[in-house]
Amino acid sequence: MTSPDLCDSLRWDLMRVVDGEADSDVQRRVESHLEACPRCRDEYDELEKLKGVTQSMRLMDLPDARWAGYWQDLYRRLERGTGWFLLSLGVVLVCCYAVLDLFRDFFFNPEVPVIVRLGFGVFAVGCIILLVSIARERLFARKIERYDKVEL
Are residues 52 and 68 in the same domain? Predict the structure, then answer.
């Protein structure tokens, strides 16, 4: 039986031998250790099996129709995502303009401190963004109603 320290020190060399990257000195040292250490011999055998399995694995070729569907789906999702982003951005900008127009006297009144005008503006923009986000989420949730097929 060999010492655990020796086994640990040879672990990287063992992997190099399995991968075929070890020089002849390392190869001989590992082989002599494997003859004396059943635990490392079992590990070596497992690594060899793993190497055999991974080398025999091949990627499956997808048919052209499947690839075409993939690219169409990717394009459709990208297109819709961009559309929703631009729609949301447009609604936010129009709502911000409406708030600004509605409170024009407030925002351009020099008697109102700048920090108050800035705070109200940031608050209004945050509310608008949240409202647009909630409305968009509800539109999506309505399409995928979880309880529409539940029978009472």
Answer: no
